[in-house]
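Dear all,

This email documents one entry for the complex benchmark we are building for the journal club exercise. For each entry we list the sequence lines for every component of the assembly. Then comes the predicted three-dimensional structure of the complex as a token string, followed by one or two observations. Please use this as the template for your own entries, and keep the labels exactly as they appear.
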Amino acid sequence: MDKAPPETTNTDGRRASHGSVTLADVAALARVAPITVSRALNNPDSVSETLRSRIRTAVDQLGYVPNRMAGALASAKTKVIPVIVPSLSNVVFIEVIEGVQETLTAHGYQLLLGTTDYNLEREAELVSALLGWAPPGVMIAGLRHLPRTNTILKNAGLPVVEMMEYGARCIDMNVGLSHFRAGMEMAEHLLARGYRKIGFVGTRLRDDYRARQRYDGMHRRLLESKTASDMLFDYPGGGSQQLGWNALGDVLKTNPELDALFFANDEMAVGAILRAQRDGIAIPGRIAIAGFNGLPVSSLVTPALTTIISPRKLMGHTAAEMLLARISGGSPAARRVNVGLELAAREST
Amino acid sequence: MDKAPPETTNTDGRRASHGSVTLADVAALARVAPITVSRALNNPDSVSETLRSRIRTAVDQLGYVPNRMAGALASAKTKVIPVIVPSLSNVVFIEVIEGVQETLTAHGYQLLLGTTDYNLEREAELVSALLGWAPPGVMIAGLRHLPRTNTILKNAGLPVVEMMEYGARCIDMNVGLSHFRAGMEMAEHLLARGYRKIGFVGTRLRDDYRARQRYDGMHRRLLESKTASDMLFDYPGGGSQQLGWNALGDVLKTNPELDALFFANDEMAVGAILRAQRDGIAIPGRIAIAGFNGLPVSSLVTPALTTIISPRKLMGHTAAEMLLARISGGSPAARRVNVGLELAAREST
DNA sequence: ATGAATTTTGATAGCGCTACCATTTTTCTT
DNA sequence: AAGAAAAATGGTAGCGCTATCAAAATTCAT
């Protein structure tokens, strides 16, 4: 905080980055070689106490901030990890990111965020662009990508974790849960409670193929039962509470024969419950409602929402830990982890 | 996708970053000078059509991904912008980030995410660390930082936008709203509806000083009125629906004389409403409830929640636009923007 | 005390890219 | 057609840091 130069450009007119205080300046002030300063900062134990403290003083005095670019370029190592998710509007991704962030931060890594808006083309571009940062690993949502994306990631030869869904084939590592199975379990539950005409309400199902997998799971189980049938409702727009609110009205009007609705997520399901409350529609009397995710709100609404709880933060933690394990040369406990799911049977069904 | 080398290390045993295909390789294949490839990629118009297509072919054939570190080091420019927020558990920050992300992405910038967990010490470290990426600008939540943080940011001499709150003194640019005013307006509203004993329910108010400012605003207005009084409740933990749910019970038991509760955010307020619904507590008959933020759910609960709507995504967009304007040399329309707020008087009061 | 093993420090040479200026080629002017 | 202006291309020299190996200083063993 003493004599940081106000100008961003050097006096000689040549390029300069930010504070313009370089490692060499520190070295000069501390009367040591630049490489020693580098060591003192990155590997303190390899420098004697004397020099270390002299260097620390110089660093503080000059307000030196290491240029990560230069360091990364020289060592071909960074501590920035791209995390690629479809969207930030969905709480689910947020919580996974949170888990990832917590673990990464604890190990001194930074998170470089990319969103694809469920567009695989954009995902491919993003992966390419982010690889330009020479990251030590990549975290990405989903198992389905363009062939191009798979190729790029495989060729990059770095640790990759695919998150959110669990499946047989992954690029490198995989942490998630089976959405197909989630759908089956919910179908099982609804059948057990006597529902026979079940609607699945989702949004943008062509893009959100994980929600679609839940539908497929449900559909399969209902087919097996031979006594029940389903109906698929696909709305445009994000899976918000407002959408669930609207959907309940629509569906009841156009398909009064339905006796249960399985929503693609808790947000929508909660919206539907709030609508039912407002309009005096009996749940589960008139129609049963189920969701997916196990958001905290699901247990607070009346009636409490039947849902499938997914361990989102755990997923983030696990994924980050696996990645870090691989980065530091070791191998993770397992290359594929199914974090599982838990059906919470509550009042709404 | 042709001949990407499987190894990460060079044959000569020296360091290599990722794909190891460099600009020089592309140049060799296209039979031009490296600098021409650089130009073809960064400033296509300055290269003839002939060479440009020859270079593009070479790039595709080799699967070349530019090394951003090297580029950034050489040009002292990056397209990565640090965004520093207290937490990801709060929807409010997410929506601002979303807005920021949309605008930044549209201009080819990347978002480097940092969270402080409401810890100013950590914030200072984060700022320092992120400046090491020589970013062209910085976005940070809040106007209150450690003196050290202010110094670092000012000395860095780059565009800085402070978001979320609007105030007189900012490091460089500021986009937000006045939380003090929000508190006053809510007090005004509650007074107008005849409430006189008002509780403010928040969490971690020492850290979340913006919530505290809302309380201060309310307190001031109530003092002026001379007829009303307030009471402050400060809970530990995050401001979740569950916490609002619990708080309603606590507060009614220990302070039955209260006739209104102003929650620090909509999440808590909605939790309280859901609890009231479940327990048959009349709102606003027994007690009025108000929130802050204007989350979509606030208008879906019964009774609909009175709240103050803050334009969060707009804040993110505006902030990002101002920053980009400054980065590209221009100056933003204004250095300080008050995005304003809107009180939605609904059924819960 | 003396040579060997160990620790600490330094000199050198890039990492992959772009700024800067010089050179060549093309287009324009009269 | 000859020279001037403009456009396209290239050579050189770093950006700030760290890997590698070499040298110096220290500690250890006998």
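Observations: Residues 115 and 286 of chain A are 40 Å apart (CA to CA). Residues 14-15, 32-36, 39, 46-48, 51, 70, 72-76 of chain A lie near DNA strand C (CB under 10 Å from a C1').
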